[in-house]
Amino acid sequence: MSLKLLIADDEVHNRLLIERTLEDLEDEGVVFLYACHGGAALEKIKAERPKLVFLDVMMPIMNGMDVCDQVKNKLALSDIYIILLADQGEEVDEKRGREVGADLYLTKPIDTDKLLEKARKILGI
Fold it and tell me: What are phi and psi of 33, to 5 degrees?
C-alpha cells in the first residue's frame, strides 16, 4: 500500500508551493493527490484515504474547516492527519480548527523546511 497525501487549495500557486516543497517525498513512494475545492477534497479523502491532508481554510464549495469536521467527526477517520492552512493567524480560527479536529493549524506564508520535516514525520519516512 502506497503512502498518499492530499493537497487541497483553490489557489494554484499555493498547491504548487506545497508540491515543490514536498517533491522529494515522491522519490520515496509517496503519491500526491490534489483538489481545488473542499467538495473535491472530501471526495478524494473518502475514496483514497490519504495519510496526510493539507487543507486550505478558505475554499469554494466547502471550506477546509467543514471538510475537516466531516472527516474527523462525521466519518471518524482519526488515522488521517489534517493540517489546516490559513491566510490569517486569528486565534478564533485556530480555536475553531482544534474544535473540528485538525491535527495542526498553520498560517501562510509557510516555513517550507518545517513543512517537509513535519510531513516526513507524519508519513514515517
Answer: -120, 155
Which of the four pLDDT bands, split at 50, 70 and 90, describes residue 87? confident
Domain span at 79: 4-113
The three-state secondary structure class of 100 is coil
Asked whether the predicted pLDDT for residue 90 surpasses 80, the reply is no
Q: Which residue has the cell 518545517?
A: 114
CA–CA separation, 60 vs 48, rounded Å? 21
The answer to whether the CB of 72 falls within 8 A of the CB of 98 is no
pLDDT digits (tens, 9 = 90+) for 26-69: 999 999 999 999 999 999 999 999 999 999 999 999 999 999 99
Could you tell me the three cell numbers for 73?
Answer: 467527526
Measure the CA–CA gap between 95 and 93, rounded to whole angstroms: 5
CATH number of the domain that residue 69 is part of: 3.40.50.2300
